[in-house]
Design a protein that fits this description.
inorganic pyrophosphatase (n-terminal core); Diaminopimelate Epimerase, Chain A, domain 1; alpha/beta; single chain; six-stranded mixed beta sheet; globular
């Protein structure tokens, strides 16, 4: 839970802001979009002028959320308070927007690797999702949790905990889910749309990723090239949740996926199943995340070059983890 001083300062910042801009990290996931839209609705319904931005579009799995169509890639010049949600560092946001660097900035996040980059940092690594933090924070700053707010925040929690199955799920998480359900969010529908419903093209993409799947001594990895996405007919920037499929493979300690993007970047995601803190690997590449789930982006690289570099560093981290575990 946010400290009393943090809550009061945020209330004062909002009271003195004429136009609030909300942003989240690149390649947004369910917690990023759910948190962004949940806070958007809470502020808008309280009478604030609010804009929302992300350099990347809303993933298909979360396009059902109310307000998703209002997401843009830039803020209006009139924004005088920026609030980032679910972003571990400024590099992970749409920081190229010049408005962000010229206004007060609030940082609300749950990643253990957060760099505390804002004027006001509200960070809770114990929370399962940023949406969980907001479920507590929104009422604390005097805003209401309407059905729109609840639907967005519950989607953030459900997606980041993979249906309440991750080790970060706590009694606090379940209390937050109860609050959101009591506010009108439909858990069954959210679970189906965000976790159990995929387009035909997404399933085609799974096939492409499985065709490139490799395994080696507790490590499993795959890659998705632009050509593979074209063959699958998949237009999204992400991996259609392949990363979380890999974590279900038995006798695996770490899963890695590399995704080629049209701008020449390679997006990397790690999942750890046996205690290895993959956020430290991601941080070494300028990314971040959680001990069990982390990611980064490597710019101006080929898939092959990024794969060699990432696997070498992951193997080394895995070796060190095993050594420390047996010591």
């Amino acid at each position: 839970m946010a400290q009393t001083s943090e809550v009061e300062r945020l209330k004062n910042l909002l009271a003195n802001a004429s136009h609030v801009g909300l942003l989240t990290h690149v390649n947004p996931d369910g917690d990023a979009i759910g948190s962004l839209l949940g806070l958007f609705w809470a502020l808008r319904e309280a009478g604030h002028q609010v804009s929302i931005a992300c350099v990347d579009p809303v993933p298909e799995s979360y396009s059902f959320l109310p307000g998703a169509q209002e997401l843009t890639d830039r803020f209006p010049e009139s924004v005088d308070l920026a609030i980032s949600v679910d972003a571990a560092s400024l590099d992970r946001t749409s920081k190229k927007d010049s408005v962000i660097s010229s206004v007060l900035h609030v940082n609300i996040d749950h990643h253990i690797s957060n760099t505390n980059f804002a004027d006001l940092d509200i960070i809770s690594p114990q929370a399962s999702a940023t949406a969980e933090i907001l479920t507590e924070l929104i009422p604390a700053i005097g805003l209401d949790i309407s059905i729109q707010v609840a639907e967005c925040l519950l989607t953030g929690i459900v997606s980041d905990t993979i249906g309440f199955s991750t080790s970060s799920t706590s009694t606090r998480t379940l209390r937050a889910a109860q609050i959101l359900m009591e506010a009108g969010a439909d858990l069954t529908a959210i679970y189906k749309k965000s976790l159990n419903q995929r387009s035909f093209e997404a399933i085609q993409l799974w096939g492409e990723s499985f065709g490139a799947l490799q395994r080696e001594d507790g490590l499993i990895w795959t890659r998705l090239s632009l050509e593979a996405k074209m063959r699958a007919g998949y237009a999204g920037l992400g991996d259609a949740d392949v990363t979380n499929l890999l974590r279900t493979v038995s006798d695996i300690e770490v899963a890695v996926i590399l995704i080629e993007r049209p701008n020449g970047d390679i997006k990397i995601s790690w999942r750890s199943m046996d205690g290895l803190d993959v956020s430290t690997i991601a941080t070494s590449f300028g990314g971040g995340g959680h001990a069990a789930a982390a990611g980064t982006t490597i710019g101006n690289s080929t898939l092959a070059a990024a794969e060699d570099l990432v696997l070498a560093r992951t193997r080394l981290a895995l070796q060190e983890h095993r050594k420390n575990r047996s010591a």
